[in-house]
Amino acid sequence: MRMESAEEKKWGLNLPATMSGTSLRLDTFSCHGSGSVSPSIMSPSKNILRFKTDSCGPTSPFSSPSTLGGHRNDLSSDTSTPPKPPRKILDAPALQDDFYLNLVDWSSQNVLAVGLGTSVYLWSASNSKVTRLCDLGPHDGVCSVQWTKEGSYISIGTCLGQVQIWDGTRCKRVRTLGGHQTRTGVLAWNSRILASGSRDRNILQHDMRVSNDYISQLVGHKSEVCGLKWSSDDRELASGGNDNQACLFPSFPLQNYTIIILLVWNQHSKQPALRLTEHTAAVKAISWSPHQSNLLASGGGTADRCIRFWNTTNGHQLNYIDTGSQVCNLAWSKNVNELVSTHGYSQNQIMVWKYPSLAKVATLTGHSMRVLYLAMSPDGQTIVTGAGDETLRFWNIFPSMKAPTPVKDTALWSLGRTQIR
């Protein structure tokens, strides 16, 4: 009899006995379904997630080696240190230029997942091996990917509104969840619950320990949901949409609240606890500070261009900054009190900010289209960015922790650690 793994027990996944065979290595292209490879819009031979040499265009940071130490037109005057070019660039053919999708995620086990067309590919940062996890076939497509915190299982949101759960080690689908009427463009895991947001305007919460497709439905947005993030304590879920409104949902009841003042609702309410209405364009970029509880950062689209900071205890806006261009993603550093933002129209740049001063540390350029995708390495030092220019670029932007904890995968350091500061 096959013994359940610790994570299988935790998630309550009833995996079939046929999954007890030898796991597929990450350097092999896998199959799914009945064992035959589904037709794909791309062949693995077409440089998928392979290293490339950047062209020396006029806006490329590679245009001249001497520009790295001298004046550069793509650096703002308040940038403290000239940034280095990306350490690695990978080809990502068919990476979509769609603001509302979330197609890149980096697992705690050091594996990058990328949705390309109808397929999800896994790239191991340890050895650069590429695996095709799945192909959804000619009538569906990948809209979002998100690893569990442990990094063994990955959820995939599809154009048809499904949420699929896959074992990333065995390359096997273990569950398919319904409930959405149309594409599922954003996913977010906390320790046990998966939240999914859709163009149908709804947020569903899924519990892998129960048989139902979802356990609750959160209704508050008036248009497509494109941003979802759980707070670090798993108590609150922040969501952003195209209705120019960010909403905040609690996952546990709060004591001694005053509804009129705080607009905080218990977990049984279908209404948001807070309505943060300062943004004037779609809110996709959302990130909770790992350094200060109840501190939420959010970024607005082309008509807004601002990063705003909120105290979610009382709903007050603490500060904001106009970045000058569409804010596509936000991520706090877990090593220092800084955050990184990626941008679209009109500058397609990446910026690093200090908090709470909001002083700009660096501006990075290189993508030729808006930088729609962002993920961070397990050690918090490297980010990967993706754009419709069909490239993934790795940047070493944050320092190591002062008291670093051991990492299981020492090959992570193979990415190189040339800092921008």
Structure in words:
The N and C termini lie far apart (54 Å). This protein has two helices and 28 strands. The chain has one domain (78-399, 411-415): Methylamine Dehydrogenase, Chain H (7 Propeller). It has 421 residues and is mainly β. A four-stranded antiparallel beta sheet has the order 1-28-27-26, with no helix packed on it. A four-stranded antiparallel beta sheet has the order 2-3-4-5, with no helix packed on it. The protein has a four-stranded antiparallel beta sheet with strand order 6-7-8-9, with no helix packed on it. The model is unreliable at 6-45, 55-82, 253-266 and 404-421 (pLDDT under 50). Belongs to the WD repeat CDC20/Fizzy family. GO terms for molecular function: anaphase-promoting complex binding; ubiquitin ligase activator activity.
Short description:
Pfam families: WD40_CDC20-Fz. The chain has 421 residues and is mainly beta.
Uncertain residue ranges: 6-45, 55-82, 253-266, 404-421
Provide the β-strand percentage band.
35-45%
Strand order of the largest sheet: 1-28-27-26
CATH architecture: 7 Propeller
Count of discrete structural domains: 1
The overall pLDDT average reads: 78
**The CATH topology:** Methylamine Dehydrogenase, Chain H
Would you count the extended β strands for me?
28
Biggest β-sheet description? 4 strands, antiparallel
CATH homologous superfamily - what is it? YVTN repeat-like/Quinoprotein amine dehydrogenase
> Helical proportion?
under 10%
CA radius of gyration: 21 Å
Query: Span from first to last CA?
Result: 54 Å
- The number of helical elements comes to 2
Approximate shape: globular
H/E element sequence: HEEEEEEEEEEEEEEEEHEEEEEEEEEEEE
Oligomeric state, counting identical vs distinct chains: single chain
Given helix and strand content, the structural type is mainly beta
Main CATH class: Mainly Beta
